[in-house]
Amino acid sequence: MNASVAIQVLPKVEGEELIGIVDEVIAYIKSTGLNMSVGPFETTIEGDYDELMDIVKECQKICIDKGAPSVMAYVKINYNPKGIWTIEKKIKKHHLEIK
Description:
It is a single chain. The protein has 99 residues and is of the alpha+beta class. The chain has one domain: Alpha-Beta Plaits, CATH 3.30.70.930. Helix content is 38%, strand content 26%. The protein contains three helices and four strands. The protein has helices spanning 16-31, 49-65, 87-91, and strands at residues 3-11, 36-38, 43-47, 71-79. It has a four-stranded antiparallel sheet with strand order 2-3-1-4. Helix 1 (16-31) runs antiparallel to helix 2. The N and C termini lie far apart (33 Å). Pfam families: Thiamine_BP. Residues 5-94 form the Thiamine-binding protein domain. This is Thiamine-binding protein. Belongs to the UPF0045 family.
């Protein structure tokens, strides 16, 4: 694993339709089988750089295929050929179980 990507898609649609399209994008990302984390503003995915770039492209295509006339995608990329810190390593200490 040499990269992580945080992606936020904003399809140009009105109201609740936005949530439905974003849900479709998240379902697609889940279907890739890669380690991922859904947040309130973006979804983070870990994997191989080239595979992640293909996923970013597909996320935008899904928005269009689901009826959005256009889509804005905000993408953050962390790439290191030698490997990256995992999502778990970065956030585990902030998500301790409440007892």
